[in-house]
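Recap for those who missed Tuesday's class. We walked through two folding examples back to back. For each one, the amino acid string is listed first and its predicted structure tokens come directly after. Nothing is annotated here on purpose, so try labeling regions yourself before you check the end of the notes.
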Amino acid sequence: MDKVGQWGDVVEPSDLPMVRQVVTAAFDGHDPVAWRDQAGPVPDSEPQAMGCALALIADFVDQIDGPGACERGLLSMLSRAID
């Protein structure tokens, strides 16, 4: 979240605790959208903070597993969901 917070021109610091909780819920195997919906209305600034967090996560996955790893994983999951 420190790196997300560095995008101060795009991210509201008040959104970071919720973004952290949503990411944690996703990594714990919960549906992040359903989990977030239970917490009430989404402020207009929160999707931007979430987008920044997801971009950083995708970059991390690509650094660890090689360029394009995140995209391949997402496409694989999408393919399985369609079948």
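Example two. Treat it independently of the first, because the proteins are unrelated.
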Amino acid sequence: MLRRILNRVSAAAVAAGLVALLALALLATVNATARSADSPAPTITVTGDDNRDGTVDEDETGWDCRTMGNRLCGPAPQACQRAGAAAAQCATVASRPAYAWTNPDGSRVNIPDGRALVLDLDERPGTPEFAAAVAALDAEWRDHH
């Protein structure tokens, strides 16, 4: 008899526990819904995002010109800014570091950085000749890398 009473009490306790858990879950859901409707979403601040728009833009403290964007530190050379359709390729060439190679005969070829190469071009920016010269510099880089 005692065993039957304990079984009934245990079953009632388990049922009461389940009802309490369901009530708590329902309250938590209602509370979370009310909280999200009443208060703004939490904001995530990215280090270096000065205007807190969620992305680090050029000229913000988190911007690294050597690894972000077009990888040009400082303004692009004037020649690239006036290059017309070749502007993107010109900026790519201007961002490249100096490099070198050794020819089969043992002679060494040193190429200055891309900014110096672009500034040294004789062709006038915006002309087809300038675009061809920039394309040739780009092709030479690709041949050696």
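Answers for example two:
The chain is about 50% helix and 5% strand.
The chain has a mean pLDDT of 78.
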